[in-house]
Amino acid sequence: MSLIPDNDASAFHNLLTGFQRSEDAGYMNAAALAILLYDICTTIVDEVEFIWSERWTITKVLYLIARYYPSIFIAVTLRGQHSACPFTSPAFIVAQF
C-alpha cells in the first residue's frame, strides 16, 4: 500500500518532476552567469580602454546593454528561482499529499 493514493500519484510525480526541472534550470542559469562573469572579468581592461574612454553614442549604449543586461537578467532570475518561498520546497509539496 502506497502512502499516496493512486489517483494522486501521477499528480505528485508531475509536481516532483516540475520541481526537478526548475532546479536543473537554476543550475544552467548559474553556469551561464559564471561564464558571462568570467568573460567580463577577462576583457574589462580592453573594454575600459576602447569603450568607456570614448564619448557616448548610440553604438556604445547598445554595446553596453548587450554586454551587461544578460548578466543582470540571469542574476535576477536566479534570485527569483531560489527565494525562500516555503510553498516550493519539496517538504511542502510532499506534505500536501
TrEMBL record:
Pfam families: DUF6533 (PF20151). This is DUF6533 domain-containing protein. Residues 27-70 form the DUF6533 domain. It comes from Agrocybe chaxingu.
